[in-house]
Amino acid sequence: MRSLDRFISLLSLFLIFPLATQAQLTASGDLAEWIDQLVDDMPGSSGDDYDLPSDSELIQWGNMMDQLFAGNLMTAAEMAEALDYDLTLYLDSPSDRLYQVLTANGNNYWGTYIRYPQYCRPLVMQAPHPRRDLNTGRQAFHVFRESNSAFFMMAGTHRCNSEQNSSCSGSTTVCSGGASQAYPISDLAHHADNVFQQTTAYIFDRISDSYFFSLHGFTQGSNDPFLIMSNGTRITPEPDYISLLADALAAEDPVLTTEAAHLNLNWSRLIGFTNVQGRLINGSDDACELSADESEGRFLHIEQERTRLRNNLAGWNKMANAVQAIFPCITVDVDEATEVAPLRLFPNPSLGQLALESAKDLGGNSPLVLNALGQNVAQQIVVERVGEKSASLNLAQLPNGLYYLVWWASAGRFMLQR
Predict the structure, then answer these.
(1) 133: three-class secondary structure by DSSP
(2) Residues 116-138: pLDDT tens digits?
(3) How many CB atoms lie within 10 A of CB 146?
(4) Which of 74, 182, 316, 325 has a C-alpha 20 to 30 A away from that of 355?
(5) 191 near 166, Cβ under 8 Å?
(6) Which region, left, alpha or beta, applies to residue 120 given φ > 0 means left and ψ of -120 to 50 means alpha?
(7) Taking the model in full, what pTM does it have?
């Protein structure tokens, strides 16, 4: 059973968010299991399920991201809902962290996006091919969670799902069975007019020291290394995180061998120069058409052989450990963090009736009441406002236990013990 100290630590996660209403969803459990299910359920290599977002929908998505990063979660949830997306505040039990999760609730298969505002590494883990490149979605989330990173992004369909071709430069044989053809628009790493690309641009501008890991998989040929890595150019940046990552991975597994496009100028296989996220991050004038000719090293395109890196948790941990080794954990100030006033809750423990007093005006809002599992149980209590800063709560419908109560910018915990 978790100690009270751990509960207090958990409460601090919720104090960051001034939750005015319960418009957004709440959930708890192992978030990795949800990612597993999303990968299993996403449309496959046929079906033509993927639709491009319209220009107006891309604008709406950008406006929603503004609200999300500003901490206006109710507004962000309403804007996401208009795009057939859910915003869920997810309490991840393995990490005791509260994540902001954007998932499709309809037929807009634009991907899954997860933000952790209290990150200590300004890293973005991207999985543009989670169905085609086995386990890269699961691996990317594992590295994201283990490294305490800022953002996770995963495509919403198989890369070959759409029958419509991208207008962006480059070609592939992956979807045709051997013949070279244009990338489909469902290949989010090779088409620029999508939510995945817009979110990349947003975070790149919003988090000035962010680094983007694009995790892929390939079938190793007889002359191939275990890893093929690239920053999207032939330029060697300073610092060179591709080289640092290669060294850190070799420390995890000395068998691993690596080729890098900027170190071996003769290497041309799977170097990611047509990846539109890489082009954007490297400053291309036209991410759809033009490869970049300079790099600050903020894009890391990583092609991985399956058996030593992608196959299971042991392989994923190699990548997670290597990432943590080269990027130190530095706690950052959270944009939307506000001064949180303590709530005076009495009697505490309570027999079923609880009085509440706040140093701040409670406004016209309603409380969020969370049990030890992170579930919102506010609908099971009766609230009677007494004044601008006080209220009375009838807890008769709740079972005994420890609870967290957040009311606008005030918070506290109470024990129900009959």
Answers:
(1) coil
(2) 998 999 999 999 999 999 999 99
(3) 17
(4) 74
(5) yes
(6) alpha
(7) 0.83
